[in-house]
Design goal:
Strand content of chain B: under 5%
Order of helices and strands of chain A: HHEHHHHHHH
Shape of chain B: elongated
Oligomer: heterodimer
Strand content of chain A: under 5%
CATH superfamily of chain A: Cytochrome Bc1 Complex, Chain C
CATH class of chain A: Mainly Alpha
Number of helices of chain B: 18
Number of domains of chain A: 1
Order of helices and strands of chain B: HEHHHHHHHEEHHHHHHHHEEHH
Helix content of chain A: over 70%
Largest sheet of chain A: none
Distance between the termini of chain A: 52 Å
Radius of gyration of chain B: 34 Å
Strand order of the largest sheet of chain B: 2-3
CATH topology of chain A: Cytochrome Bc1 Complex, Chain C
Chain lengths: ~220, ~400
């Protein structure tokens, strides 16, 4: 019975082919440092799931953002856990992604033929930092308000176009409901879209080229 | 990279693969274990450290020390080393060059070797950069001054209690302990002005929280009410204004019920016959509601402060006579029972009735009298001892 269901599905979905190319393949022997890429992926997925759950109650307006988070923390069943995971997960993700980068650097894994994989990885790192920067404002507390004020001010010091960038980021001269709305949109739509597309490319390349090996003394 | 080097790499990599393991289950197993470990770590962090509550964003409070997420601190600290005139070098030029270099690393690094000992230059440069980032982060954490703690009232109960404290300090002297209004007495510049009630049903049913907050923040400056919000020159931050409004709403609006524990935390307990009241349980709460609005630093009050037990007993121009244990002629008792104090030499009135507009409820006056008669105990324990002594005699 199970066998016939499987072969029916396999005939249509090509499950065996996927199993053979993705899972049942030989890779070089590696150490624990090589788990940080998949750990970053796992943390990214966790951020996605907890983020979606938070968006059920979170309201991205200056009048309600703070109170909606207070409600998530105090009024929603396990709201504190979901927010706690999202909050700490963000920091941990940056950490694992950065150490992953250092591992790749140390073993020279960015060299031929994995230059493009490195390229997508750097995009992902900055994607994560962008998520951190935009997500920091969303609780609309003192810390986030003033950090974003200073952060956007820094963008404003860029020669010639600085003032323009500042206005685009803030949606005006000062932080306001428009800024919060823009950061929210960046945080839940624009950055995730870029990140998901880049992660898919990154994973495709990792499977296509194989996990890099630990270089020996002569290489 | 030359063609033969590419071929050489491919050959070695194929060999490593042959000597290697299966992606499933060997690699996946390690990956899952690592991810699971991190998940447990995260649950632990969320449970035991949680997310530290921060006060609500307040554009008027510019005293707040901005601090970004920890992973941006190194950049923040780095900027301090760049002179203001060429700020853009630190905020734009160097970061952009660094980002470009990171992207272009595979093309900048033409060394075909991969083992770290064969790439000492590259490894050293990266090492210095990473150590620099860590060092700058640590330096930033150490040198940033600690943020002054602001009380955060998250629950309705906490807000009501905090709001009442602000009401006592900033509002009572004109609006009265229950918002009843009346003729103002003893307030410089507003002497004799008659205020309507701010706790009436008319008032509560027709003013939204936003309106109340705006009135408290901006004041009614044409009518003489000073601003209280930081944005308009007052002392209260946004979150504090909100707490104050929450207190008003829950205390005076008969459409909302005050939560039980909030009611209990601020109630002034009654005393039974023969029970000795204490500062801790009774006097502090009465003083907070009726007295400290004027009897705090910076007000015209004969230097008599009532914020703490020590202040009540020892401060003021008439400190010797204000509080005399066991003596109902203590100035304070005379005042709160409606009498004025005259200078024994000149015959001039030096203290008027207290509170100036309207005496406190009879039961609160009785508590003060019982307290003075029993030697003004500070803690509930002392008061209880005195009570039981009184009963055995």
């Amino acid at each position: 019975m199970t066998q016939s269901i499987f072969s029916w599905l396999d005939e249509r979905l090509g499950l065996t082919a996927i199993y053979n190319t993705v899972l049942d393949r030989k890779v070089p022997k590696v150490n624990w440092w090589f788990t940080l890429g998949s750990a970053s992926l796992f943390l990214g997925l966790l951020q996605g799931i907890t983020g979606m759950l938070l968006s059920v109650y979170y309201v991205p307006t200056p009048d309600h953002a703070y109170d909606s988070i207070t409600f998530i923390m105090n009024g929603v069943q396990f709201g504190w856990l979901i927010r706690g995971l999202h909050h700490w997960g963000a920091s941990l993700l940056i950490l694992t992604a950065f150490i992953h980068l250092l591992r790749v650097f140390f073993y020279g894994a960015y060299k031929y033929p994995r230059e493009f994989t490195w390229f997508t990885g750097v995009i992902l790192l900055f994607g994560a930092l962008g998520m951190g920067f935009t997500g920091y404002l969303l609780p609309w507390n003192q810390r986030s308000y003033w950090a974003t004020t200073v952060g956007t001010e820094i963008a404003g010091t860029v020669p010639v176009v600085g003032d323009f960038i500042l206005r685009v980021l803030r949606g005006g001269t000062d932080l306001s409901a428009v800024t919060l709305s823009r950061f929210f949109s960046l945080h839940i739509w624009i950055f995730p879209a870029v990140i998901i597309a880049t992660v898919i490319t990154h994973l495709y390349l990792v499977i296509r080229l194989g996990i890099s090996n630990i270089p020996d003394k002569d290489s | 990279m030359k063609e033969e080097q590419k071929q050489e790499y491919k050959r070695k990599y194929e060999q490593a693969k042959q000597d290697g393991v299966k992606f499933w289950p060997d690699i996946i197993y390690k990956d899952l274990l690592m991810s699971f470990g991190l998940f447990i770590l995260l649950v632990g962090l969320a449970t035991f450290l949680g997310v530290t509550p921060q006060p609500k964003a307040d554009p008027s409070d510019t005293s707040y020390i901005p601090r970004p997420e920890w992973y941006f601190l190194f950049l923040f600290e780095f900027l301090k080393f760049i002179p203001g005139k060429i700020e853009w070098v630190g905020t734009f030029l160097i970061p952009v060059l660094a980002v470009l270099a990171l992207f272009a690393l595979p093309f900048l690094d033409k060394n075909p070797l991969r083992y770290w000992k064969n790439r000492l230059a590259g490894i050293s440069i990266m090492g210095v950069i990473v150590l620099g980032m860590v060092g700058l982060t640590i330096r930033s954490v150490i040198t940033t001054p600690k943020q002054e703690e602001v009380p955060i009232a998250d629950t309705i109960q906490e807000q009501i209690i905090l709001g009442q404290e602000f009401y006592s300090v900033y509002c009572v002297e004109c609006h009265g302990p229950d918002g009843e209004g009346g003729e103002i007495a003893g307030v410089e510049g507003l002497e004799g002005v008659v205020l309507k009630s701010i706790s009436s049903r008319d008032e509560m049913y027709t003013r939204s929280d936003e309106t109340l907050e705006a009135i408290v923040a901006y004041g009614q400056q044409d009518l003489g009410m000073p601003p209280n919000g930081l944005a308009y020159g007052g002392e209260l931050k946004k979150a504090e204004l909100e707490a104050l409004v929450t207190f008003m709403r829950y205390t005076w609006d008969d459409r909302v019920d005050i939560p039980e524990d909030a009611a209990a935390a601020r109630a002034i307990p009654e005393i039974k016959e023969g029970e000795v009241p204490s500062y801790e349980v009774h006097i502090s709460r009465i003083a907070q509601r009726y007295c400290i609005s004027c009897h705090r630093p910076g007000k015209e009050n004969n230097e008599y402060l009532m914020g703490t037990y020590q202040e009540i007993l020892t401060t003021g121009d008439n400190a010797d006579n204000n509080m005399i244990a066991g003596n109902l002629d203590s100035y304070l008792i005379q005042c709160i029972t409606g009498e004025s104090i005259f200078d024994p030499e000149t015959g001039e009135e030096i203290i008027q009735q207290m509170p100036p507009t309207k005496l406190m409820r009879e039961q609160y006056i009785k508590i003060f009298e019982a307290w003075v008669l029993n030697g003004m105990p500070e803690t509930a324990v002392e008061a209880e001892l005195l009570t039981s002594e009184g009963q055995t005699e």
